[in-house]
Write the structure tokens for this entry.
Amino acid sequence: MRQHSTIEELQVPEEAVGGSAVGEACRLAALMGYAVLDTLPEDDLDDIVRLAARICDAPVSLITLVDDVRQFFKAHSGYDGAESAPLESGFCPLVVQAAGPLVIPDTLSDPAYARNPATIGGGVRFYAGVPLLTSDGLALGTLCVLDQVARPAGLEASRIEALQALARQVMAQFALRRALRERDEALRERRAGEARQRQILSSAVDYAIVTTDLSGNITGWTGGAEAILGWTEAEVLGRAADLFFTPEDRAAGRPDHEMTEAREEGRGNDERWHLRKDGTRFWALGEMMPLTSEDGAHVGYLKILRNRTEERRRSERLNLLARAAAELLSAADPDAAVRPILEAGAESLGFDQPSSTRRAATASASR
């Protein structure tokens, strides 16, 4: 504990404050991390400086933050001057340099203190300050008390300990504010990410993306799902996701099978007919995956469907044409050989009956 220290006594070895420029860089980085410089007054901190002034029976008390060019007075009691001061004015930078308490009973007792602008211009005769220390021992600033009357007896150890306790409360307030700020930033980033995800999902109109809870009830429904399946989100939320499975697949337990496969194997794939709201069917390639929370708990399922009806029809057409070509090469009666193939594949070919049948019907009508 320094009582009436001289400037020479306060020359602290570089290694004691973190290794010159490296240590100062760490200290400044820690100070910037709390984001308290140039912020508005706060009631909780104002209460602390008032309490410090009362405990030490001093007319002025300050919470001072020290960066590389100035001192910023974050909170003050009994002081109505500027909100900052240069480093060479006052004694808080000495406390930060030493990272320990400093008590000056009479600033006029030492020529260096006597020449300080705080003494000459501010009339400070008594100073007592303790550092605001991070958990790593870095001094960000001070909690100090001032008086324009010298105190030859200095400051009792019990009062210095009280100042140190209050300084810890200041740092606790800083840490709380930083934690709240980081939480708010994380929430903003999360909401922005969720908004971007919703935009991405909504723009994926070629895919029906559906989320369900563990029971298979729908909890999410994208614009693509509405475009492909026909139901709006309001119509399906809370309903069982098997509503777009065909009756035969529901009877066979396919929805439950997909959830089981996704849960046990990480994903469940299918390629089959599905139902639209209007009752029509479409061929879809589907994939189901488990949904997990941030802590890894299984909370539901994600199902992605893509309409592959046209691709299926193209493939079936090629198969039909290949079968028809093979029959034509060996058939004695080409019409009789090809007609059953074309009639069976009429839907895939895109008409109700083969063209040869239509031609025969037209010819019969003209007679």
About this structure: DSSP finds 14 helices and twelve strands in the chain. The chain has three domains: 2-182, 204-307, 312-354.
